């Protein structure tokens, strides 16, 4: 019998295909595990409604369950809506190492906190576009080292 | 038709048809950042459409793909604002301002819907649409308060689409008797305030029109809808059941 904690730990290691340094546990995309009769149900939630990574994540979680010899399925839930607040501190640190500025805490669009350049550390940066290479990121540029970078935007 | 099915279809079709028009901008926008932005916005709309159509389909055993690809024009319940062909970029930003402001108010109310699934979709979508409103607002201000030519085009876009805005707020017996629904007529005043506030700041004139188009919620569409569906549905209908 595989415990829930062991299931969560194993499926939590599934990587986000678009930001492979982050696991779905780091992101807060993995919501939980429950039992329905003999079946194990793992719940995940998308970062954005249209996130194209969800299909692959679901598939990888199913493969992980199978490798544990667990009879289970994956369910996608929308509520409560995902927020960047669920990203773990270690996840944020991994993002910086990967060259992506982590979300800066506060949610609403209008509130602007300074975003630190993940490459040189300068706080003197400018947003080029709210929208970046994936739904969850915005495009920024550092005014000190002049490098463009992605910023994981707070929602 | 089940009330909740019909209501969910209205919201889902608005999102799906908007996503289709928004996606047409990819690789045709005035700058690379805008291609990326409109790609993201279209993807958000498509994600909302998928959640809503999956839910609608759950009432009669159809899939999201059945609903998107195998219904005919008269079965689509989106407002006509969403289906009009893309004009120039100012036209696109006028439409996004009108539509996203409406969606934002709608989803914000729908978060407390008696229906848990609709409330869940809305709670997710309202955060995404806040970015769409902001994006459209920035462009309407920049183009309206820009050069003589950009001002002229922004005004033309705002004016051309104004006669399609009243349809967003039409009330009918369905939304009045369905407890899970938001009656869109209750959103009209807040929408007008917000949109006119942006238009005033952009130095454009407030549009007005004595005529307002209607019919989308009953499946009556403009002549452009059939062409849009032909493009959207062609592959799925030519190769039914294909997967890749």
TrEMBL record, chain A:
<dbReference type="InterPro" id="IPR052339">
    <property type="entry name" value="Fe-S_Maturation_MIP18"/>
</dbReference>
<feature type="domain" description="MIP18 family-like">
    <location>
        <begin position="5"/>
        <end position="75"/>
    </location>
</feature>
<protein>
    <submittedName>
        <fullName>Ring-1,2-phenylacetyl-CoA epoxidase subunit PaaD</fullName>
    </submittedName>
</protein>
<feature type="domain" description="PaaD zinc beta ribbon">
    <location>
        <begin position="113"/>
        <end position="153"/>
    </location>
</feature>
<dbReference type="Pfam" id="PF01883">
    <property type="entry name" value="FeS_assembly_P"/>
</dbReference>
<dbReference type="InterPro" id="IPR056572">
    <property type="entry name" value="Zn_ribbon_PaaD"/>
</dbReference>
<dbReference type="Pfam" id="PF23451">
    <property type="entry name" value="Zn_ribbon_PaaD"/>
</dbReference>
<dbReference type="InterPro" id="IPR011883">
    <property type="entry name" value="PaaD-like"/>
</dbReference>
<dbReference type="InterPro" id="IPR002744">
    <property type="entry name" value="MIP18-like"/>
</dbReference>
<dbReference type="InterPro" id="IPR034904">
    <property type="entry name" value="FSCA_dom_sf"/>
</dbReference>
From TrEMBL, chain B:
<dbReference type="Pfam" id="PF05138">
    <property type="entry name" value="PaaA_PaaC"/>
</dbReference>
<dbReference type="GO" id="GO:0010124">
    <property type="term" value="P:phenylacetate catabolic process"/>
</dbReference>
<dbReference type="GO" id="GO:0005829">
    <property type="term" value="C:cytosol"/>
</dbReference>
<protein>
    <submittedName>
        <fullName>Ring-1,2-phenylacetyl-CoA epoxidase subunit PaaC</fullName>
    </submittedName>
</protein>
<dbReference type="InterPro" id="IPR052703">
    <property type="entry name" value="Aromatic_CoA_ox/epox"/>
</dbReference>
<dbReference type="InterPro" id="IPR012347">
    <property type="entry name" value="Ferritin-like"/>
</dbReference>
<dbReference type="InterPro" id="IPR011882">
    <property type="entry name" value="PaaC"/>
</dbReference>
<dbReference type="InterPro" id="IPR007814">
    <property type="entry name" value="PaaA_PaaC"/>
</dbReference>
<dbReference type="InterPro" id="IPR009078">
    <property type="entry name" value="Ferritin-like_SF"/>
</dbReference>
């Amino acid at each position: 019998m595989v415990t829930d904690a062991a299931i969560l730990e194993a499926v939590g290691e599934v990587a986000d295909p678009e930001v492979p340094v982050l696991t779905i546990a780091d992101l807060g995309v993995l919501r939980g595990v429950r039992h329905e009769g003999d079946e194990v149900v793992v719940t995940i939630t998308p970062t954005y409604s249209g996130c194209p990574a969800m299909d692959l994540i679901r598939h990888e979680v199913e493969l992980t369950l199978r490798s544990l010899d667990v009879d289970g399925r994956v369910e996608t839930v929308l509520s409560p809506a995902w927020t960047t607040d669920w990203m773990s501190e270690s996840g944020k640190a991994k993002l910086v190492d990967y060259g992506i500025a982590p979300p800066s805490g506060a949610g609403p669009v209008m509130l602007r906190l300074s975003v630190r350049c993940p490459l040189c550390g300068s706080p003197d940066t400018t947003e080029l576009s709210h929208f970046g290479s994936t739904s969850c990121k915005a495009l920024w540029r550092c005014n000190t080292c002049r490098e463009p970078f992605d910023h994981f935007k707070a929602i | 038709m089940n009330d909740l099915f019909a209501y969910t279809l209205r919201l889902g079709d608005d999102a799906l048809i908007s996503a289709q028009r928004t996606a047409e901008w990819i690789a045709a926008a005035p700058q690379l950042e805008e291609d990326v932005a409109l790609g993201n916005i279209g993807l958000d709309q498509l994600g909302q459409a998928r959640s809503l159509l999956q839910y609608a389909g759950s009432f009669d055993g159809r899939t999201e793909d059945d609903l998107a690809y195998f219904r005919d024009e008269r079965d689509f319940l989106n407002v006509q604002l969403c289906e009009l062909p893309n004009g120039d970029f100012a036209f696109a930003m006028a439409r996004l301002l009108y539509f996203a402001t409406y969606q934002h108010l709608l989803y914000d109310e729908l978060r407390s819907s008696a229906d848990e699934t609709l409330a869940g979709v809305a709670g997710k979508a309202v955060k995404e649409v806040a970015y769409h409103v902001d994006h459209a607002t920035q462009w309407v201000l920049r183009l309206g308060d820009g050069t003589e030519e950009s001002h002229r085009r922004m005004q033309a876009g705002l004016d051309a689409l104004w006669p399609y805005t009243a349809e967003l707020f039409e009330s009918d017996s369905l939304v009045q008797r369905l407890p899970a629904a938001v009656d869109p007529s209750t959103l009209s005043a807040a929408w007008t305030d917000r949109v006119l506030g942006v238009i005033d700041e952009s130095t454009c004139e407030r549009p007005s029109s004595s005529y307002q188009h209607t019919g989308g919620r009953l499946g009556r569409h403009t002549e452009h809808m059939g062409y849009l569906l032909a493009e959207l549905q062609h592959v799925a209908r030519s190769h039914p059941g294909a997967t890749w």
